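Before we proceed, please read the two lines closing this message. Let me know whether the structure tokens fit the sequence:

…
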Amino acid sequence: MNEHQSIKILQTPFYSRSTILVAIDLLGKILSHKTSRGILAGKIVEVEAYLGEIDPACHAFRGKTQRTKIFWRKPGIAYIFINYGIHRCLNAITEEPNIAGCVLIRALEPISGIEVMKENRGTDNLLSLTNGPGKLTQALDITLNQNGYDLTKGDLMILDNESCSDIVVTSRIGITKAEKEPLRFYIHKNQFVSVQNSKVITFFKGLPEMVRKAFCDSTVKIGLKHKKLPTQLSLLSFYK
């Protein structure tokens, strides 16, 4: 893959863990799409976690449907949907079998194929090129046809990369259910993070290992509950 040839592709075990842990660890990794116009790639700088059947903001909350059955397939595949009838959103399916979850890729720092990305987006403004979930899929030419693609092989994949610096934990953006949960993560002071919302709540900031520990010791708490499922369902593998 030219400049990314020596970088390891993230494999299924990476995704087959707690959605929260996968979200934290995806920051700093590289989303890469091999297209007919070259490799379009960017560093992941912002994500949101969606915790399956305990999370009313997650599409899997109401169980298996024709649309959501993808959540119960193997982890490490792409879940792509249209938001507001316009924007394509890319998610990575997470968790072990029989536990639904996904991580929404919210923003990238462009690193490869930038001129093609500008053409795809119709803008020369580098900072607004990939600083939103709909923007980044348009820039990287990611379409609904790639829904269900295996991110561990093929033309659309996520590559390993060095760990990022401080991570900020906040509430999620652009949703109306469970919007105050601490499930949005971004790289501190990165200029390619999506535009801040005045209603966003900031819960924690620190190195990746500090953020993981904060969830483990309940410094940062998840308040989601479900009448049939325990609150900690999607955190089970977090403690392994």
User: Anything to note?
Assistant: The first strand starts at residue 30 and ends at 35. The first helix runs from residue 12 to 15. Confidence is low (pLDDT under 50) at residues 230-234, 236-240. The chain has five helices and nine strands.
